[in-house]
Amino acid sequence: MGTDFATSTAYPGVEFLVGEKIRKTKVYTHPTVLKYDSRRLLTEVGCIAVLFTQARKATVFAERKVFSPVLWSVFLCFVIWAVCFCTERNISDETVDAMNQLVGYLTALVGFPLALFVSTSVSRWWDMSYNCVGTLWDVVDDLCMWSAAWFAGPGGAEAHALIVRYGHVSIKLLWKQARDDEDLEDLVIGGLLTPQEADVLADLPSKSMVVWTWLTTFLFQAISEETHPRPEEDGPDGLMPPIVPGACLGSVGLPPQRFPTTPPVKFGRNLIPSVMTKCAQGRCAIGRCLCYLSTQQPFAYVHLLGLLCQLIYVTNSITVAIIIAKNTDLDELPDGAAAFIISNILKLVLVPLIFNALLYICVVLQDPLGDDYCDLPGRAWAHYMHKECEGFRLGNEALFKFDARIPPKDKKK
């Protein structure tokens, strides 16, 4: 498998995944944040400095839609202020107090459902990254660790490589399905799929789950005691039965593909329940992830939350316009009026900006397998997992080349 990934540092402490190297050819992809220095970002001025670098694209302020409520709030405020100023209406203190109370009530009212919406979105994101993708990673690692012990020696290298390859390609296919990407050619070029496997998967749904069906079939046959004592039941080349039903491959005009042979596994029948459970956990992790991608928070709840936020923007604009009109209608500004006006202008800008930024974060977190800058770096994780699984076998092979026992210490005379 000739796949690697390329990174770029847009700001000190923020590293981006920018592409993949497939067999010495660099293929650029949509950048995603690979890792960042939380200490620099939170405790230093990095949170401000990052806004003036390319890393700004991974923040909420890179999206122009976040600023749209600010623009029309300022415009609405200016229109209302101009009307009040030109008509020379006398605005009482009671009117200002009433509008301020209304904004305060609405902000408190929206605070609870907005906090719940953000909390649920973050919880879904964390569950997808930890309990879905993380569980899938763990299952592949466990199977590869077992196979490194079962298939030790030259005779098991091909079998171990098959498990690593199927685990890797299942993650790639999960990301492709999340992005509605049906093209499998890059996986064939990268050595993760054979042309026969790609043709079989082409018209099938949930391709990543199908790969786990293949892996389950291979492992079941590899550790089943009946497959090893009777080699005459294997294929003509000493290979195990087909990787997928012959009818599927025959329908696309391709010869049946077969599993590599494996050395016998002692007491393999007793291992079948544990191995089948692991395979089911891998498929379940993919299914759970796809379930999150296919479900959303209730439409009526999200619609009401968005409507309440828009209502806050409008009432806040009206309130600030009235306050500014009241203070600029005087011949001479009282002490502290300038600071009072500036603080309300900041309120006019910050209220819609913060509320809309929180809503935008929730929108992005709903699909962490997408193409946004702050989505999960699946390509890099798949590469890490692949290297780990290869290291299991290399380390196990090296173990047999030396004495693992610690020599006894020389006794002091």
Could you characterize what this model shows?
The chain is mainly α and 413 residues long. Helices cover 61% and strands 7% of the residues. It is built from 13 helices and 3 strands. α5 (157-178) packs antiparallel against α8 (207-223) and α11 packs antiparallel against α12. It is elongated, with a radius of gyration of 30 Å. Mean pLDDT is 80; it is low at 22-28 and 226-255.
Task: Report the sheet with the most strands, covering strand number, pairing sense and barrel closure.
Answer: 3 strands, antiparallel
> Whole-number average pLDDT?
80
**Total helical elements:** 13
Helix/strand/pairing category:
mainly alpha
End-to-end distance, in Å?
Answer: 56 Å
Write a brief caption for the model.
This protein has 13 helices and 3 strands. It has 413 residues and is mainly α.
Question: Topology, please?
Answer:
Blueprint: E1 3-11, E2 14-22, E3 25-36, H1 38-43, H2 46-49, H3 68-87, H4 93-150, H5 157-178, H6 185-189, H7 195-201, H8 207-223, H9 246-251, H10 268-294, H11 299-328, H12 337-365, H13 378-399
Antiparallel strand pairs: 1-2, 2-3
Helix pairs in contact: 3-11, 3-12, 4-5, 4-10, 4-11, 4-12, 4-13, 5-8, 5-13, 8-10, 11-12
